[in-house]
Amino acid sequence: MMEITVAEMDALIQKMVQKREEIRLHKEIGSKLNAELEAMEYQAALFLKESERESYRSPFGTVYTINRWSVQTPKSDEDKIAFFNYLKERGLDLKYMSVNSNALNSFYNAEMEAAKEQGTIMDFRIPGISEPTLTISTGLRKG
User: Fold this and answer.
1) Contact criterion met (CB below 8 Å) for 112 and 124
2) Is the residue at 86 inside a domain?
3) Residue 32 within any structural domain of the chain
4) Between the CA of residue 29 and those of 21, 37, 113, what are the distances in Å?
5) What is the pLDDT at residue 24?
6) 1 belongs to a structural domain
7) Are residues 30 and 55 in the same domain?
8) Is residue 12 domain-shared with residue 53, that is, in the same domain?
9) Does residue 139 fall inside a structural domain?
10) What is the pLDDT of residue 50?
11) What number of CA atoms fall less than 13 Å from residue 126's CA on the CB side?
């Protein structure tokens, strides 16, 4: 077993707090730089549109437009049912239906707690879901 002194643990936590602050500062700088870049990209898009061009090549690189249609996922239960029925009619339900990982884990944990309360935890299993794995991580709050 590894031995560590209180002073070593305090020093480690101090370094962790300092590293978090360093990361936060870099994220702020990155966010500002990204906002500047997005403004430049908007200007380039306006130039391309106004000059009725799809691309422009310069000695430094080529800027071009990308046209992509997108839709949002169904939000209401009625829309979800309609969409899933549409997929099922075409035999595509298993290909396009998915469950968000966070939502699945939340559901699984709630079901597992219910099984504990009912005394059936030893028989608890959700069909199609593998056995859970435990991930251990650390947290840090400023003192």
Assistant:
1) yes
2) yes
3) yes
4) 13, 12, 43
5) 95
6) no
7) yes
8) yes
9) no
10) 95
11) 15
Q: How many CA atoms lie within 13 A of 141 on its CB side?
A: 1
CA distance 121 to 51: 67
Question: What DSSP assignment string belongs to 32-98?
Answer: HHHHHHHHHHHHHHHHHHHTT-SEEEETTEEEE-------PPP-SHHHHHHHHHHHHHTT-HHHH--
Tens digits of pLDDT across the chain (143 residues): 889 999 999 999 999 999 999 999 999 999 999 999 999 999 999 999 999 999 999 999 999 999 888 888 899 999 999 999 999 999 998 888 888 899 999 999 999 999 999 999 999 999 889 999 988 887 878 77
Verify that 21 and 60 share a domain, yes or no. yes
pTM for the whole structure: 0.60
Do 58 and 83 lie in one domain? The reply is no
Range of the domain at 97: 77-123
